[in-house]
Specification:
By secondary structure, the chain is of the alpha/beta class. It has 3 domains: about 140 residues, no CATH class; about 100 residues, no CATH class; about 150 residues, 3-Layer(aba) Sandwich (Trna Endonuclease, Chain: A, domain 1). The strands form 2 sheets. An 8-stranded mixed beta sheet has the order 1-2-3-4-5-6-7-8. The protein has a 5-stranded mixed beta sheet with strand order 9-10-11-12-13. Helix 10 links the parallel strand 12 and strand 13. The chain is globular. The C terminus is likely disordered.
């Protein structure tokens, strides 16, 4: 299998081997001229092959040799990193399209890594800091990533995908916040500069920038300690208040304000725990337990107030032999009239769309998501068929199946624009099922916190301007909660 880049005739050739396949860069035409210009002493020649990657089928492992392949770059065909020569991905690298053919589009790599072969593999530019820090940490010349912690010393640095993904997200958050602050500073500078040059009165200037607030925001994004007191210390204060609550009853308005601060502290703790868990590879059983302990998160996913009616509820479908029962993760009473709702829980690691595109820029929903949609619709159907019998048998008559809502919580944010577009087209085209990602639930919690802490007199702070808009996420329409600790 051969692919050629038009602008400089660079060729990527994939060759099948007894153990898998090799990915080579083949020089020719202007690509050869670029290589000679970048490193004349290397004695480059036409048809020269440079190993870019090697896939081992037995271990399902791709070993990449990241090099610079940017056309015209002075570093063309040189290694991307000073010491790290290879990056190995366990569980990735197959180019099989499912029909026994090799296909470039079939290649999958974790978020944060370049999967475009003409991009020379390696980490994306903004994540170069991770590779550089690994090089500083020791005499490592190889980086190996896998699902589970691996032991080994020498020159190979072993990382789990979960650890790398945690670092990736922290860097992205800190970068976004610094960029937003910088953009605000540019606008403030130009506001007065343009007005002075044109001889007009400048527009009203918002509250001044606070560099310390920016520093706190970036540090918190990286899970470093800013000026805010750690949650554990604040929790100790709350425990002290609980021990002395009788003595505080006469405090009046001060006690009400303290109660509000405690609610905010609990919300902050919930946000911190959810944000930390999303980056880890927990199974569905963990998320079932976590959401059971924190039902406020599920309530936030609905536009109406809800009450948890039951967990792992049998909704119907039992055959004569006792098999085939349909179990819903959560059964809820939504709204003021007892209308039922069904919730299906997947994990943040659930793929929302398939990696390989269906047609140019369009990706089909992943089989897990498509299966979950069909599953909740079947549960909805079974519950509607058997609701009367269940009401009589259980003695509960205040629940109804007028129009059962179905909610799926699965997946998280995606970096690829085509993936996002395809997912939005799919979920917004559904008639009776709503799909919410774990990332969106986290954003709703943050938006609610920003709404509850907003001070109209002080105006938006730098930290507040970095939070999602409460209005955009309908948090302002949600009753003030007392989240479960």
């Amino acid at each position: 299998m051969i692919a050629k880049r038009r602008e400089d005739d660079l060729v990527i050739q994939v060759t099948s081997t007894p153990t898998g396949h090799d990915i080579d860069v083949v020089l020719g035409g202007r690509a050869l001229a670029s290589a000679v210009a970048a490193n004349a002493s290397a004695n480059h020649h036409g048809g020269q092959r440079t190993l870019l990657g090697r896939y081992d089928q037995a271990s399902n492992t791709l070993t990449t040799h990241p090099v610079t392949l940017t056309a015209g770059s002075p570093y063309f065909l040189l290694p991307k990193y000073d010491r790290v020569a290879t990056i190995t991905f366990e569980g990735y690298g197959s180019l099989d399209d499912g029909f026994g053919n090799l296909d470039y589009e079939a290649l999958k790599l974790p978020s944060g890594f370049v999967k475009d072969m003409f991009g020379g593999f390696g980490a994306t530019y903004e994540l170069r800091f991770i590779i550089e820090e690994i090089e500083r940490a020791g005499h490592f010349t190889h980086l190996a990533l896998s699902e589970h912690p691996a032991t080994g010393g020498g020159t190979t640095a072993h990382l789990t995908y979960g650890a790398f993904d945690t670092w990736r997200r922290a860097i992205r958050r800190s970068h976004d916040r610094a960029v937003q602050f910088g953009n605000r500073a540019k606008r403030d500078y130009l506001r007065s500069a343009v007005a002075g040059e044109l001889g007009i009165v400048p527009a009203a200037t918002p509250p001044g920038l606070d560099p310390a607030a920016l520093a706190d925001s970036v540090l918190i994004a990286l899970n470093l300690q800013g000026r805010q007191a750690p949650v554990s210390a604040a929790t100790d204060v709350v425990r002290g208040v609980r021990r002395n609550h009788k003595a505080l009853k006469a405090a009046g308005s001060e006690l009400l304000e303290l109660n509000r601060e405690i609610e905010l502290l609990t919300l902050e703790d919930l946000i911190a725990r959810l944000e930390a868990h999303i980056t880890k590879r927990h199974n569905e059983a963990f998320w079932q337990a976590f959401l059971s302990d924190n039902p406020f998160i599920i309530r936030l996913a609905f536009g109406l107030p809800i009450a948890v009616f039951g967990e792992q509820v049998a909704v119907g479908g039992i055959k004569f032999d006792g098999s085939g029962g349909k179990i819903a993760d959560y059964l809820l009473r939504a709204g003021a009239y007892g209308n039922m709702a069904i919730v299906e829980i997947k994990t943040p690691d659930t793929d929302l769309v398939r990696k390989k595109h269906y047609r140019g820029g369009v990706h089909a929903p992943d089989k897990e998501v498509a299966g979950a949609v069909t599953q909740v619709l079947d549960q909805r159907y079974q519950l509607q068929m058997e609701i009367n019998n269940k009401k009589v048998a259980s003695g509960q008559f205040d629940v109804f199946t007028y129009s059962i809502q179905a909610l799926i919580i699965a997946g998280r944010d995606m970096d690829d624009a085509d993936h996002r577009k395809s997912f939005e087209l799919f979920r917004n085209g559904l008639k009776d099922v709503t799909i919410v990602t774990f990332t969106e639930l986290l954003m709703k919690l943050k938006a609610l916190h920003a709404f509850l802490t907003f001070d109209p007199a002080a105006g938006p702070s730098v930290a507040g301007s970095l939070a999602p808009s409460a209005g955009d996420l309908t948090a302002a329409q949600t009753p003030t909660p007392t989240p479960a600790p």
